[in-house]
Amino acid sequence: MQLRLTLLSIFICLQASAQTAITTFAGRNIHSFYNGAPATAAQFNAQHKIRFANGLLYIADASNNSVRILNPATNNIAIFAGKGSSNFSGDGMPATAAEMNYPQSVCIDDTGNIYIADCWGHRIRKTTPAGIITTVAGNGIAGYSGDGGPATAAQFNKPQSVATDDSGNIYIADFLNNVIRKVDLAGNISTIAGIGVAGNTGDGGPATSALLNKPMDLFFDTANNIYFADQGNHSIRVIRPNGIIQRIAGTGMGGYSGDGGPATAAKLQSPYAVMWHPSGLLVCCGLWEPQSKKHFTFYRHYKYCSRKRHGRQ
């Protein structure tokens, strides 16, 4: 069986096969805004996370303040949410008429709801299968407050990623607050990892007592473990169902080393995404090379977790 992987370049979407051949299937090397077919004629601007569900690819096109949708069967790309302007509006209306501010990621639950981390809007938005958008968390003001109360009254500080569990609870990587937060089925919010201060402590103990440093991306596996990229700590960490946190990859020091050895002895450089692979975790890391002032992306694979549940990332 040929394995294909969807990778996100800074302006274009790439597809890599198991033979490592890479082709462009969406976007051009021009940062702008264009829809329609073919997808290779489309233009993006600093797109971030991509998610595949129900045969469609959802792309968080951050600087275009929108989420785009690509249908590989028709090679057509269109707007799913956001009309391109940077603002906040549209709750209760079709998502295509809404305004967002630098959406960073999307996730899809089993009922077809699409959740969007509206990063610079400091909110989590939800689009129903009928295409109507609402805010499910965040009041739009940067800060850290609201635990124990309605999620819509809470403050975030640039939420980077969103995921859901089997029960429909929502989990959010609250980037500049250095915490992971949860919105329960009643709509109330709590912090499940971190204390709101940047640091690198707590492995082996309760996640609520640990220090994180800019959590960037998260997903669930079939055993209800929550994996996330702890970007500022150059590590991948996991929160177990019993609330205990562990570092599973990275030493806490930035760099690139350790291939062929234990993941916890390897150096990562500012990991910004964790993605599922049939045999474990695929870790996406960003590397800045100061001499050439270029940004490189490299991918490192660790055989660690069980199979990811469908539609949870």
UniProtKB/TrEMBL annotation:
Repeat keyword on record: yes
The keyword Transmembrane helix is annotated on this UniProt entry: no
Domain (Teneurin NHL) ranges: 86-139, 145-194
Record PROSITE patterns: NHL
InterPro entries in the record: 6-blade_b-propeller_TolB-like (IPR011042), NHL_repeat (IPR001258), TEN_NHL (IPR056822)
PANTHER family assigned to the protein according to its UniProt record, in alphabetical order: NHL REPEAT-CONTAINING PROTEIN 2
Name assigned to this protein: Teneurin NHL domain-containing protein
Organism: Flavipsychrobacter stenotrophus
